[in-house]
Amino acid sequence: MSKKPSISVVLSTYNAEAWLEKVLYGFQYQYFKDFELVIADDGSRKETKDLIDRMTSVVSYPIVHVWQEDQGFQKSRILNKAIVASQGDYIVMTDGDCIPRKDFLSVHAAHMEPGYFLSGGYFMLPMDISKAITKQDIQQGNCFDLLWLKSLGLKNSFKNNKLSAKGFLAYFLNKATPTNASWNGHNASGFKADILKVNGFDERMQYGGQDRELGERLFNAGIKSKQLRYSAVVVHLDHKRGYKNQESIDKNRAIRDRVKTEKLSFTPFGIVQKA
């Protein structure tokens, strides 16, 4: 790459080629262009690599594919590897099942501020609509259009404001929401230097809150957060969660409780580990 990008998008994936292809097209149609996409691949099969190789010649942004051998759910470890591989000074983090609206990166770029990380949200779609979305729907923005979504059976809900809110209403809802401005793996951003300062993700953690734990250590390090739940928008494609189990959730809860109680900011189980 001739020039270092101002933003590195770090995106996680595992054996979900159909969803990943839609997400890669979502980044193709971003208004903000000065970025690279770093795919944190937790041991996917060859079909994922084949898709990435094909899409590299289709999209206009650079793709970096960071892969590790499949050893079960090791998302924290592969995210740390992707963070190290990233070139930008600012990292936007999302998942390979979240299609970004065209202004997604523009919103993150406009709100980045030293001493803060940004907390976005997602709009969950049911499986039938997730499958129905085409490249053209992404390019035209249909999958963010409530009328189009309702024509496919989307129900009325207050959460629909995530897609329809603009301007002052989005600003007001960001301020008024009772939801904490936490680090959300599907939609969050911060300065790479801040993430490295706390040593990235805790690799002991498997499914269930490893993203929130990173944010809690950033808070303990003096970093504040801004709420962009109604401004930085992705639609979340539906999928099964076979890796979810109570044992890992309980283990992660114990780690998070210690981080909060002892106000820990650095994990010795992160990017840099002593032999």
What class would the helix/strand composition place it in? alpha/beta
Q: What helical percentage do the residues reach?
A: 25-40%
The ordered H/E elements are EHEHEHEEHEEHHHHHEHHEEH
Beta percentage is 15-25%
Computed Rg: 18 Å
Can you tell me the CATH architecture? Alpha-Beta Complex
CATH class equals Alpha Beta
Task: Describe this structure as you would to a colleague.
The chain is of the alpha/beta class and 275 residues long. The chain has one domain (7-262): Alpha-Beta Complex (Spore Coat Polysaccharide Biosynthesis Protein SpsA, Chain A). Helix content is 39%, strand content 17%. It contains 12 helices and 10 strands. Strands 3-2-1-4-8-6-9 form a 7-stranded mixed β-sheet, with helices on both faces. The protein has a 3-stranded mixed β-sheet with strand order 5-10-7. Strand 1, helix 1 (17-28) and strand 2 (35-41) form a beta-alpha-beta unit. Helix 1 runs parallel beside helix 2.
List the helices and strands and how they pair.
Blueprint: E1 7-13, H1 17-28, E2 35-41, H2 46-56, E3 63-67, H3 75-85, E4 90-95, E5 98-100, H4 104-111, E6 116-119, E7 123-124, H5 127-132, H6 135-140, H7 146-151, H8 161-164, H9 167-176, E8 187-191, H10 192-197, H11 210-220, E9 224-227, E10 234-236, H12 246-262
Parallel strand pairs: 1-2, 1-4, 2-3, 6-9, 7-10
Antiparallel strand pairs: 4-8, 5-10, 6-8
Helix pairs in contact: 1-2, 11-12
